[in-house]
Design a protein that fits this description.
By secondary structure, the protein is of the alpha+beta class. The chain has 4 helices and 4 strands. The chain has helices at 32-46, 54-62, 68-71, 115-131, and strands at 23-25, 72-76, 82-92, 98-106.
């Protein structure tokens, strides 16, 4: 079990979703370059206000109290390209409030296949498990 904020522990992991044509697993530091390449494809398509560097992604995986095994996923195609990613971070908020931050993206070329809905359901379940 990983550790959460304030010395808490993660409950039993939420099963990773099944996505046709994709292999889904937790993110690892060795994945950052491929993960960042997908982030750049999304940024080119979406023109977001925030731009994530490879260092930002690594910081995400190595954040204090974050357990990538239970709080992250990458969906890879048969060639090993990252086609979707998601993270779920539990953090302490103001005045004893717990905050859960969910982030993720689906590769522009893989959108419209229901991947985002499945990943969001996984994030919701993982967030609920973390605060249980």
């Amino acid at each position: 079990m990983g550790t959460g904020v304030a010395g808490g522990t993660w409950a039993t992991a939420v099963a990773l979703p099944r996505l046709p044509g994709l292999r889904v697993r937790p993110a690892r530091p060795a994945d950052v370059a491929a993960w960042h390449a997908m982030v750049l494809r999304c940024e080119a398509a979406d023109a977001p206000a925030e731009h994530l560097s490879a260092g930002d992604l690594l910081d995400e995986l190595e954040a204090e109290g974050f357990d990538p095994l239970h709080g992250s996923l990458l969906a890879l195609d048969a060639t090993g390209e990252v086609r979707a990613w998601a993270t779920v971070h539990l953090g302490a908020g103001d005045r004893g409030v717990l905050r859960v931050r969910c982030a993720g993206e689906v590769d522009p070329g893989w959108r419209g296949r229901g991947i985002g809905r499945v990943v969001l359901r996984w994030q919701e379940a993982a967030a609920r498990r973390q605060v249980a």
